[in-house]
């Protein structure tokens, strides 16, 4: 009788997916926390004016308040609907009062003075310049003096 060699059957190796799933969830959490979600500053309903002088910002200001001015002269202070005049829609608050409250909260919670806050204004291209100037004057009455006006960079010359 001949002796045949019997080879032991090896089990198929399967990777342990538990640790890989843990790593994936950790990476998702990390990037979610680190990512800068500035959606309050970007509203797609606003068509920014184009400018040849527009430059992307080098760095975001440390303390900022975003104001968005729509073509129908309505405003968003952060995410709060506002109106410049008290005759606006009933759900919209007065812009000056909302700005004063925002500054009070910044001072109470973050210990930030008005002179350290930068106002970022995103105005629709259809708005007249006088409306933006009125927004700036209301902000100046509250002691704010640093302003950034957002515009789209002109595609000419590229």
Q: What Rg is obtained from the alpha carbons, in whole angstroms?
A: 27 Å
Biggest sheet details:
6 strands, mixed
How many DSSP H or I helices?
A: 3
> What share of residues are in beta strands?
15-25%
Distance between the termini: 86 Å
**Approximately how much helix is present in the residues?**
25-40%
User: Count the strands?
Assistant: 8
Strand order of the largest sheet: 5-4-3-2-6-7
Set out the fold topology:
Blueprint: H1 17-34, E1 50-51, E2 64-69, E3 75-77, E4 80-83, E5 93-94, H2 95-110, E6 118-123, H3 129-141, E7 146-149, E8 152-153
Parallel strand pairs: 1-8, 2-6, 4-5, 6-7
Antiparallel strand pairs: 2-3, 3-4
Characterization of this structure:
The chain has 3 helices and 8 strands. The model has no long low-confidence stretch (mean pLDDT 78). 30% of the residues lie in helices and 18% in strands. A 6-stranded mixed beta sheet has the order 5-4-3-2-6-7, with helices on one face. It has a two-stranded parallel ribbon with strand order 1-8. The protein is α/β, with parallel strands linked by helices. The chain has a domain of 104 residues. Strand 3 and strand 4 form a beta hairpin. It is elongated.
What would a concise description of this structure say?
With 158 residues, this protein is α/β, with parallel strands linked by helices.
Give me some keywords for this one.
8 strands, elongated, two-stranded parallel ribbon, 3 helices, alpha/beta, 158 residues
């Amino acid at each position: 009788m001949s002796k045949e060699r019997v080879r032991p059957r090896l089990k198929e190796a399967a990777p342990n997916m538990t640790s890989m799933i843990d790593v994936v969830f950790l990476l998702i959490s990390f990037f979610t926390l680190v990512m800068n979600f500035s959606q309050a500053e970007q509203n797609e309903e606003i068509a920014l004016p184009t400018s040849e002088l527009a430059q992307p910002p080098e760095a975001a200001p440390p303390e900022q308040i975003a104001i968005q001015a729509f073509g129908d002269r309505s405003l968003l202070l952060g995410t709060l609907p506002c109106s410049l005049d008290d005759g606006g829609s009933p759900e919209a608050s007065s812009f000056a009062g909302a700005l004063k409250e925002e500054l009070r909260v910044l001072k109470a919670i973050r210990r930030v003075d008005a002179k350290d806050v930068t106002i970022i204004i995103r105005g629709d291209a259809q708005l007249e310049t006088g409306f933006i100037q009125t927004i700036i004057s209301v902000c100046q009455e509250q002691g704010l003096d640093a302003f950034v006006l957002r515009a789209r960079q002109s595609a000419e010359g590229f």
